[in-house]
């Protein structure tokens, strides 16, 4: 049995269909995606937040509030992010509020425009004037600046209250540190184990598409045993070895080849697109093994059922794969939005879509801290593969040359 499996595996990996559908096309699409999405990933990152600040005059700068204001903004501009080493907030000093407004307005056409201006009013109140915008990302960044300014103003108000009630408290080192420390106002955090990116969904849809394309491999493997489809199938029909066992051998060889192709594609995508699954990498490999199993069963089922012509069977698999990839959102951001809206409005369309289920099983490892969604989608993929393999083997055992 092992010898037959090895011979079947060698026959499959030497076939041009394996090189084209399981390796060539997925790696080519992954390369195109990488060049398309790398600029998007760079723009989507929350990097520096530039603001304009009004420099105080000599009288206001000498006051305690003015000194605290200057130290606060200098601390923000000098607080480096641990990952990039660059300031999280950059401050562009201007001599007056009017010059600051002009600087904000003049920067709106730049790649990274100023988010607004910060100034200390005559009443010693810190105000942030946000630049008018309709961009949701810019509005989110402006909300970060507004939150930082509100936090600083709350500290200053607390200091004034303490000074009025008990000035001796301001002499304590812990109180001074709590009121003066402004470097930890902005921190980058991640709600999941690994920081997800919006473009990860396209790579996961590509892996689901690749898994279904590998069904072409199992289709050719199963057609080798179908009587009338090939000379080998006709001879095997007349042999004494059970065809159900031979079907399992060829499907196992097809699964091995498909799984190896998926792992190669995964390694390339993770390396070139910088996708990190962290401690869940082993579960990713398990998901790809289940996806290969499902694709193998689907190809074997189509081989022993449906139309007799090989071209028609290949057309059926290609149609299922391409339509599944369409409703998984593989073909671009508008298609991804359409697929997500359809899955929300009619969840059954996502449950019966094999490409979508492979995509969801991989997405669950990135976008969820719990493994429950992953095991649910993985179970659906594995169950579909088991049903297809069982029906395919039983169907092949009932085929006879006389009935074809």
Automatic annotation (TrEMBL):
Do you know which InterPro entries this protein is assigned to? ABC2_TM
Q: Which domain of life is it from?
A: Bacteria
Asked if the keyword Membrane belongs to this entry, the reply reads yes
One of the entry's Gene Ontology molecular-function terms is: ABC-type transporter activity
Q: Which GO terms describe its cellular component?
A: membrane
Q: Which UniProt keywords apply?
A: Membrane, Transmembrane, Transmembrane helix
Give the ABC-2 type transporter transmembrane domain ranges.
Answer: 16-392
Entry keyword GTP-binding: no
> Which parts of the chain span the membrane according to its record?
18-37, 247-269, 281-303, 374-394
One Pfam family hit: ABC2_membrane_3
Q: Which residues form the signal peptide?
A: none
For membrane topology, the record states: Multi-pass membrane protein
Q: Where in the cell is it found?
A: Membrane
Q: What is this protein called?
A: ABC-2 type transporter transmembrane domain-containing protein
Question: From which lineage does this chain's organism come?
Answer: Bacteria, Bacillati, Actinomycetota, Coriobacteriia, Coriobacteriales
């Amino acid at each position: 049995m092992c010898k037959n499996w090895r011979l079947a595996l060698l026959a499959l990996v030497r076939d041009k269909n394996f090189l084209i559908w399981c390796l060539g096309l997925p790696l080519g699409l992954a390369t195109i995606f990488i060049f398309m999405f790398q600029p998007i990933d760079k723009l989507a990152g929350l990097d520096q937040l530039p603001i304009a600040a009004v420099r105080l005059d000599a009288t206001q700068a000498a006051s305690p509030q003015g000194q605290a204001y200057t130290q606060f903004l200098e601390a923000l501009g000098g607080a480096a992010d641990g990952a990039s080493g660059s300031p999280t907030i950059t401050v562009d000093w201007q001599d007056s509020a009017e010059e600051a407004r002009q600087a904000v307005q003049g920067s709106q056409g730049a790649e990274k425009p100023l988010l607004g201006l910060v100034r200390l009013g005559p009443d010693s109140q810190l105000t942030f004037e946000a630049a008018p915008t309709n961009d949701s990302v810019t509005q989110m960044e402006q909300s970060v600046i507004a939150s930082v300014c509100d936090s600083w103003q709350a500290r200053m108000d607390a200091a004034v209250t303490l000074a009025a009630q008990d000035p001796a408290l301001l002499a304590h080192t812990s109180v001074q540190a709590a009121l003066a420390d402004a470097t930890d106002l902005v921190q980058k955090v991640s709600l999941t184990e690994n920081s997800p990116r919006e473009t990860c969904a396209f790579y996961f849809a590509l892996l689901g598409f690749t898994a279904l394309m590998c069904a072409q491999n199992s289709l050719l493997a199963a057609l080798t045993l179908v009587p009338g489809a090939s000379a080998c199938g006709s001879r095997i029909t007349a042999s004494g070895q059970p065809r159900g066992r031979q079907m399992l051998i060829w499907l196992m060889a097809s699964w091995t080849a498909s799984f190896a192709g998926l792992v190669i594609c995964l390694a390339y995508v993770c390396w070139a697109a910088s996708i990190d699954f962290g401690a869940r990498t082993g579960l990713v490999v398990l998901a790809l093994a289940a996806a290969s199993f499902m694709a193998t069963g689907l190809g074997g089922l189509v081989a022993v059922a449906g139309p007799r012509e090989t071209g028609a069977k290949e057309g059926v698999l290609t149609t299922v794969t391409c339509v599944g990839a369409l409703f998984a959102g593989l073909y671009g951001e508008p298609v991804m939005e359409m697929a997500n809206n359809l899955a929300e409005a009619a969840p059954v369309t996502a449950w019966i879509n094999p490409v979508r289920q492979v995509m969801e099983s991989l997405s669950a490892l990135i976008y969820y801290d719990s493994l429950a969604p992953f095991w649910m989608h993985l179970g659906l993929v594995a169950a579909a593969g088991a049903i297809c393999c069982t029906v395919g083997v039983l169907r092949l055992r009932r085929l006879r040359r006389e009935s074809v």
